[in-house]
Amino acid sequence: MEMFEDKKGISPGRIIGLGIFFGGQITKKEVSVQSIKHSIQFPDDKTQELSQDGEYCIIEDKAHNQPYEVRFHDYEKVYSIPGLYEYLFYERLKCCSPETVCRLLEDQVKESPTDIKNLAVLDLGAGNGMVGQQLRHLGVEAVYGIDIIEEAAKAVERDRPDIYEDYYVADLTRMSNSFREKLKAKEFNCMTTVAALGFGDIPTKAFGEGFNLLTTPAWIAFNIKEDFLSDEDLTGFCLLIRRMIDAGIFDVSSRKRYQHRLSIHGKPLYYIAIVGEKKAQIPQEWFNGSATTKDTSILTSGDRS
Ligand SMILES: C[S@@+](CC[C@H](N)C(=O)[O-])C[C@H]1O[C@@H](n2cnc3c(N)ncnc32)[C@H](O)[C@@H]1O
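Above: the input entities. Below: the structure tokens describing the complete assembly.
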């Protein structure tokens, strides 16, 4: 069992690694106003291997009489405990995706006439700001976040308030015209989306809407579980990305297979990071697929309603 301390009132933007206890040792000293100590355990039933989106941890703290379970994909709960997301995914499960995807983007941008600091990035599925933080670290000056849940925005405000120029809580599959125009006016020339495609998170339609908000040309940097790029993929991303490439809408400049993180059972989970350029808008018909067109399944809004 590992210990992790949740510190309320510590200076945001510096939360990673601060106040986290490993076997009673604090990794860095930090002043806290009020602290709650949590103990975190992974289920140890080795007979039942959990699917990636079924993974959870068991938390004990003084605020609850009983240990309670938190599913990793229950982002509302995860973000509501300061530092828990960083602890689970980065400390325990060695996630490296924000850094891997952003570095791949940096490498490609360096080979182009674009100066990375001049990117205006829309970070889709921004969560509590790990990707935004990485982009700022690389020198990007304008980073905007968007996520579907309020708790993500609250976590950014609490933990990394200086990262994003603006942070929107919105569902891109249900945008009002005024919101669409507001976002278009930002003239985003880059979109990042990390650890957020598939698994009932960002559906193809939201990805497509985000893509079409960008200027042409624009940079796109994302990652996706390798299974979702295989022929058996049911999320629709494999088909969408292939069609975008075939239609000359998206030009892939770099792709990299890498270990995104470990599962709670210690197995490597492989993802593909992809960086490329937007060359054209996704045609409107792809969004309006009707039963009579072959594009019906291309851009679907997923199961979040
Ligand atoms: C695993 S987190 C990744 C967060 C961040 N990109 C990172 O790498 O740390 C996935 C995020 O996608 C968000 N998300 C899920 N569905 C979404 C949608 N339709 N539109 C925008 N964000 C969504 C979730 O709320 C969650 O914050």
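Note for the figure: Residues 97-287 form a domain with the Rossmann fold fold (CATH 3.40.50.150).
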